[in-house]
Amino acid sequence: GIQVEQSPPDLILQEGANSTLRCNFSDSVNNLQWFHQNPWGQLINLFYIPSGTKQNGRLSATTVATERYSLLYISSSQTTDSGVYFCAVLRSNDYKLSFGAGTTVTVRA
Amino acid sequence: DTGVSQNPRHKITKRGQNVTFRCDPISEHNRLYWYRQTLGQGPEFLTYFQNEAQLEKSRLLSDRFSAERPKGSFSTLEIQRTEQGDSAMYLCASSLQGRVTEAFFGQGTRLTVV
Fold first, then answer.
1. What's the pLDDT band for B12 if we cut at 50, 70, 90?
2. Could you tell me which residues come within 8 angstroms of residue B43 by beta carbon, excluding any fewer than 6 positions away?
3. Nearest chain B Cα to A4, which residue?
4. Hey, are the CB atoms on B91 and A99 less than 8 Å from each other?
5. Does the beta-carbon distance from B42 to A31 stay under 8 Å?
6. What tens digit of pLDDT does each residue of B61-91 get?
7. Which pairing describes strands A69-74 and A19-25: parallel, antiparallel, or unpaired?
8. Does A97 sit within 8 Å of B102, measured CB to CB?
9. Which of A24, A38, A60, A90 could lock onto A55 through a cystine, CB 3.0 to 4.6 A?
10. What is the mean pLDDT of residues A103-108?
11. H or E segment at B90?
């Protein structure tokens, strides 16, 4: 199956700092999604971004499908940004998302 | 609320008992997925339905697990003779078949087998 690697595995930030999370994948994809898992375990959709760049408030994401990676940017981080961020991809000719192991972000006040 | 809904949110059961979880997808979504997530890991695919047809089952899904989606609407996931290793978060997701395949997840059911 497709391999999805996220880095770094853990990230500790001071409130107000900026950060970049990376997702590498091993095959062509039709879909890439970024999720934030809240403390209760629910996966919250951040971006649906098979290619290009999108922004939503302090978060933005870029996917370069031809080079098989995606980046999630967090600017001016807040304590509420803490949690686990997952990248998930849908391989071409497939229908199920494959997840990376996640990046655990801790934002300290 | 028109999102994906899962019930129950939490389930504690004794080893050897059977449990059943329910998932109500977004109403117009014809694709439905079950995933399992253990502590510190990303979600792992269990099974997939397109309408009422179960089209794929992961090797993770032993013969103690069964899933149904009658009439292509809600889905149930049953685990028979639960084992401690079944303790996990069970996540349901739905999406549309088509050009935009964004998946949306429910709140999950956290299973603890004691």
1. very high
2. A43, A86, A88, A99, B35, B36, B37, B91
3. B42
4. no
5. no
6. 889 999 999 988 999 999 999 999 999 999 9
7. antiparallel
8. no
9. A60
10. 97
11. strand B88-95
Shortest alpha-carbon distance between residue B31 and chain A (Å): 9
Query: Distance (Å) from the C-alpha of residue A20 to the closest C-alpha of chain B?
Result: 19
Q: Is B50 in the A-facing interface, judged by CB distances under 8 Å?
A: yes
pLDDT over 90 (residue A64): yes
Burial of A38 per CB tally in 10 Å (0-12, 13-18, 19+) = middle
Q: Provide the 8-state DSSP code for B3.
A: S
CA distance B73 to chain A (A): 18
**How many A-B residue pairs are in contact by the CB < 8 A criterion?**
58
Q: Do B31 and A40 touch (CB under 8 A)?
A: no
